[in-house]
Amino acid sequence: MIEERAYWLAWAKISGLGPIALQKLKEEFKTLARAWTATSTELGHISGFGHQTIKKIVEERSRMNPEELLKEHIEKNPNFWTPADPDYPRLLQEIPTPPPLLYYRGIVDPQEIQGITPTVGIVGTRNPSEYGRRWTRKITRILAKSGFTIVSGLAAGIDTEAHSTCIQIGGRTIAVFGNGVDMVYPRENKSLAEQVVKHGLAVSEYPAGTKPNSRHFPQRNRIIAGLSRAVLIMEAPQKSGALITANIANEFGRDVYVLPARLDDQKSHGCLQLISKGAEVIPITMDRLLEMLGAMPPLEIDVGESLEKSSLVEEKNQTLIPDLEPMLAEILQHISTEPMVLDLIIQKTGLSSGEVSSSLLQLELLGLVTQLPGMRYQKN
Question: Per CATH, is 106-316 categorized as 3.40.50.450?
Answer without folding.
Answer: yes
